[in-house]
Records
---
Amino acid sequence: MSGAKSSSAIETTGTAEAVRPYRGRFAPTPSGPLHFGSLVAALASYLEARAHRGEWLVRIEDIDPPRERPGAADQILSQLERLGLHWDGPVLRQSTRNDAYQDAIDRLLRLGMLRRCTCSRAALAALPENRARAPGEDLYHPAECVGIEPGLAGRHALRLRVPDRDIEFLDRAQGPQSGNVARTHGDFVLRRRDGLYAYQLAVVVDDASQGILDIVRGMDLLTSTPRQILVQDALGFARVSYMHVPLAVDESGRKLSKSDDAPVVALAGPGLQLAAALEFLGQRPPADLWRAGAAEVLQWGVANWRPDGFEGVTTRPVPDAGRREAAKQEG
Ligand SMILES: [Zn+2]
């Protein structure tokens, strides 16, 4: 199906770059409902797109069934609707895109840019370079494979061969960035041993095919960016621009878990949630906006959008929306 489709997508990307219309996106993983951190990413990408009079697309990143929760995708979409974050065009679901991902893999194989690997996660986790990494974190792969398991000869992952050099890019919120993937991750997985396509591949193929040239997302994905640039370069796609927005943390600086921020999203109405997210993004919503409906808050947000409100900010505590909610009820 998508042989012709992906090549026309590349041409579209080239054309889009010449004209440079703004097209942004929000791409949640359906592992649960939107929490405050994902609301911030959705709102920032929406405002950046609308402030540029651009399009804003939504893509559901459902390529990893074990991480997903049934019903979560529909729950996220209905939350976005309730927040007034209306998207353009159809929602793209990654679970429908395997042909496009396999086309990309086939091209990289033909170019000799992939290596087969039978390393188990356990064997990689035991390496000194990986001992400090948290469970679930991406692991470093050394130049030579380790721990080849008998009986797994037919099952292998495909990893991108990465050059030992700094990948540099200018983040529109965080400034100049640089990362050497060979040192931080080594050759990294594009198709897993279980046959599933890796996030780092799917996100790049989909952004190119959807003509996305401007990505606004949370700081937790900053460390993925050099790897995604390598995949773009390997596939001959246009480079895109990045803006990484601060990560919501609790008072002790830890990344929020879904239960931590439940009060912000579960108890507050849509207008108040959006106002809290605006404040988090350094947008200084006026006092009366905290009592407004979602549409009015978004209208103010687009008209007053100032990305320098979070320039250089990597984390921020969640605003006390509970206090705001109480003030609203008293007022
Ligand atoms: Zn290996």
---
Amino acid sequence: MGLDRSEVAKLLGLAASLDQRTVGVADVFAWQAALEGVTFGECEAAIIAHAKAAREPVRPADILVAVRDHRRRRAERTAIPHRPTDRATAAAAAKHGMADVYAEMGWTYNAQRAAAMTVPCPLVGCWAPVGRPCRKYGNRYQDMHHERHTKAATKGVRR
Ligand SMILES: [Zn+2]
């Protein structure tokens, strides 16, 4: 999968409008060669995200890293619910810690989620205990409640 030259030219045009670079034909060829295995939409999103977060002009490596990270996060979000839960396996693995639970269940390890699991959820009505995921409460459920992530992060700082 590769981008065609008109797509690459559009991406360079976007980058140029954000960082005032000058763009030549050689840039189009170089970017086309570098941007392998990514879609136009992914590149466009990565360029805009880069412009919001960094002062340096965006380079193909920035785009490739951003796309790879985005794909990994998306895979982590979708990987968890697709596997049926084997309670006995999960319970046995829970004795070893969350990293092992994820390994045992074939889930993608997510450090932030695992950290949140080490504290009980402080959200009124959820109060999920240590080692258990958050409960759906109203329409505020997002896998782990935001308050719990905050609590886990604060606990880490105090340690
Ligand atoms: Zn919760």
